[in-house]
Design a protein that fits this description.
The complex is a heterodimer of chains A (288) and B (300). Chain A has helices spanning 2-18, 147-156, and strands at 33-34, 38-39, 43-50, 53-55, 59-68, 72-81, 94-100, 106-113, 122-145, 166-168, 173-179, 185-186, 190-199, 204-205, 213-216, 221-225, 229-230, 234-237, 247-257, 263-287. By secondary structure, chain A is mostly beta strands. In chain A, strands 4, 6, 7, 9, 10, 12, 14, 15, 17, 18 and 20 form an 11-stranded mixed sheet that branches. In chain A, strands 1, 2, 3, 5 and 8 form a 5-stranded antiparallel sheet that branches. Chain A is elongated. Chain B has 300 residues and is mainly beta. Chain B has 2 domains: 22-39 and 148-284, no CATH class; 44-146 and 286-296, Immunoglobulins (Immunoglobulin-like, Sandwich). Chain B has 2 helices and 22 strands. In chain B, strands 1, 3, 5, 6, 7, 9, 10, 12, 14, 16 and 22 form an 11-stranded mixed sheet that branches. A 4-stranded antiparallel sheet of chain B has the order 11-13-21-17, with no helix packed on it. In chain B, strands 2-4-8 form a 3-stranded antiparallel sheet, with no helix packed on it. Classes of the chains: A mainly beta (288), B mainly beta (300). Chain A binds chain B through residues 80-81, 83-84, 115, 118-125, 127, 199, 204-205, 243-246, 287-288, and chain B through 75-76, 151, 153, 166-167, 169-172, 179, 181, 183, 235-236, 270-274, 276, 278, 280.
């Protein structure tokens, strides 16, 4: 058995030494570097570079695998800075991927060429930008109790037995709604609602146009005063939202709770359409 | 009276300055941090000098052998051509003159990174009567001279003003610590910046350039040139090279004077771009090693 193994091992050894086996494992030149997958609230992406180190004048191929977590529109990926590399004329600097559905995988391929001469080993960062349009939506219960119902539950200690459910889509840009009082509200109670826009991702959001934000108030909440928004049940923003250090400002509206039935459960919803950019890079070494 | 007051104030000031009390005295130093990565200092080393036979007696021939090794990394450094290889015999031993040219019979010895070359020379110990029957010493000095290029490449990150503002507005710091890759060889070039990076597109950047001798040998101007000069280029696209007040430098206690240079940062069409500034200096370098050969007198 051992003597049977010896011959193929010996032949493989001779082949490797002769140079016939160029893609022998651990060979320096045929290295594929797969970078760790980057996860954001909107998208997951992986950079793959082949080879991770090139000699002067050689090509480097970069594959960017994108998997959106939700529907994204107008997805583009472009080379922001090719460092010392050049993009051949027949190759694109920006790849338009269009609209992508959740969990569908798309691959963008780039090819760059190293300069003809370098003075010394140069570790270059090739910078990319992924841009897209996405939307955020959230929905929450608003519970208003009649005066009699409120008193009865307060005395029996069952005020918190009414479950208030809420849900939101994972997103790089979020709108957070909070109230000045704890739910359930009582009929006729004055409530202040604050709406705050946050960039919780690592990228940069563009300003949000005022017509891209919609807040639908339930029938059990009436607007009394709301300077940044207009409308009664469907609130529309009266100014664009700009982000400063991850925050897009906070608006406060004065509302009045109204119970049309003893236990009035309404739905408050918000939807935000936003444009977002993520910048990232991969390192490629150019050897002289 | 005025002169005495002036002299007293000057004396007190000088005393304070020398005592270290005035720490923040204005000096010509750049304060921006640069991350430096340095390659090997040495290039050619003379090693393993041996004398055979190990006991040298008066009137006998002996051999001094040694090796020269290129200690550079085969992946990153270039081969070196030995320009001169000489042995100096300053003692009573003789070998056909006091200066022995070991390259006399072979031209252009090239040593590749990682390679080792062996050399030897034959000398004759003095006769017993020449050293009065006492033990004597022959200091044999071996000197190798070669030409090499010092190269340093430093990152110069350029960004449009609008992009800097956009990043700052988004709460992301645009500031970047540049990396300086100092090439192989005993002479090293360094950059010092006054302004933080990224540099604003279209602006002017002032920086300092100087060199240090970190090896054990001596630096001289390359053959055919009287001066040591540092030349600067921008990479990629060399049309916009930095300019300096002057290009020639002189070494004093292992370090050159600092040259003030200006780089007109390119006007970008794109949002940002990584450039590299490259400093180069061609130089001649000599390394010496001495071996003392003890000559024992034979009984008369």
């Amino acid at each position: 058995m051992i003597s049977r193994m010896l011959l193929p091992t010996f032949m493989l050894f001779i082949l490797a030494l002769s140079g016939c086996v160029t893609n022998f494992p651990f060979s320096y030149r045929s290295k594929v570097t797969v970078y760790e997958e980057t996860l954001t609230d909107d998208i997951a992406y992986t950079f793959e570079v082949y080879p991770s180190s090139v000699y002067e004048g050689e090509k480097v191929k970069i594959r960017v695998k994108l998997v959106p977590k939700k529907t994204l529109k107008n997805v583009n990926i472009s080379v922001v800075d090719p460092c010392i590399f050049t993009i051949p004329e027949n190759r694109k600097k920006t790849i338009t991927l269009g609209d992508l559905s959740a969990n569908t995988q798309r691959i963008a391929k780039f090819e760059l060429r190293a300069p003809e001469t370098v003075e010394m080993n140069t570790k270059c960062k090739i910078k990319f930008k992924i841009s897209y349009e996405a939307s955020f939506s959230a929905i929450s219960d608003v519970v208003v109790l009649s005066e009699a119902e409120y008193k009865e539950r307060a005395s029996s200690g069952t005020l918190n037995d009414i479950k208030i459910s809420s849900s939101k889509t994972p997103s790089a840009v979020e709108a957070r709604i909070s109230f000045s009082e704890e739910q359930p509200f009582r009929d006729g109670e004055e409530v202040f609602m604050s709406v705050e826009y946050l960039n919780i991702g690592n990228g940069i959001p563009d300003k949000i146009e005022k017509n891209n934000i919609k807040i639908n108030l339930p029938q059990n909440l009436e607007v009394e005063e709301c300077s940044d928004y207009s409308g009664e049940n469907e609130l529309t923003l009266s100014k664009n939202i700009e982000f400063y250090e991850k925050k897009g400002g906070k608006s406060v509206c004065k509302l009045r709770a109204k119970a049309n039935v003893p236990i009035d459960i309404g739905k408050l919803s918000i939807s935000v359409k936003y444009k977002y950019e993520i910048e990232d890079y991969i390192s490629v070494e150019v050897l002289p | 009276m005025k002169a005495r007051v002036f002299a007293t104030i000057s004396l007190v000031f000088a005393f304070l300055l020398l005592s270290g009390c005035i720490e923040n005295f204005p000096n010509y130093r750049a304060s921006v941090k640069v991350q430096t990565q340095e390659e090997t200092h040495d290039l050619l080393v003379i090693e393993d000098i041996k004398v055979t036979p190990s006991l040298v007696f008066t009137g006998t021939e002996f051999k001094v052998s040694f090796r020269i090794r290129h200690v550079g990394d085969p992946k990153t450094s270039a081969p070196v051509t030995i320009k001169e290889l000489k042995a100096y015999d300053f003692g009573p031993c003789s070998g056909g003159g006091h200066v022995l040219d070991l390259l006399k019979d072979s031209n252009n010895i090239v040593i590749y990174p990682g390679e080792v070359k062996y050399f030897s020379l034959t000398l004759t110990a003095p006769e017993r009567n020449e050293i009065a029957g006492l033990e004597a010493k022959c200091p044999i000095r071996i000197k190798v001279t070669y030409n090499y290029n010092a190269t340093t490449q430093v990152e110069a990150y350029v960004m449009k003003k609008e992009k800097i503002e956009k990043l700052e507005k988004a709460g992301k710091s645009p500031y970047y610590t540049p990396k300086q890759n100092v090439g192989i060889g005993p002479v090293k070039i360094y950059f010092e910046f006054f302004q933080p990076q990224p540099f604003e597109s279209g602006r002017k950047v002032v920086f300092l350039v100087y060199a240090k001798n970190l090896g054990d040998g001596d630096v001289n101007a390359p053959s055919g040139s009287k001066k040591l000069t540092i030349t600067l280029t921008q990479f990629p696209s060399e049309a916009n090279n930095p300019t300096c007040e002057k290009s020639d430098v002189k070494f004093f206690r292992g370090e050159t004077n600092k040259i003030k240079c200006t780089w007109n940062v390119p006007k970008l069409e794109e949002e940002e771009k990584m450039y590299y500034l490259i400093g180069k200096m061609n130089y001649e370098y000599s390394v010496e090693k001495v071996k003392e050969v003890i000559v024992k007198p034979l009984p008369g």
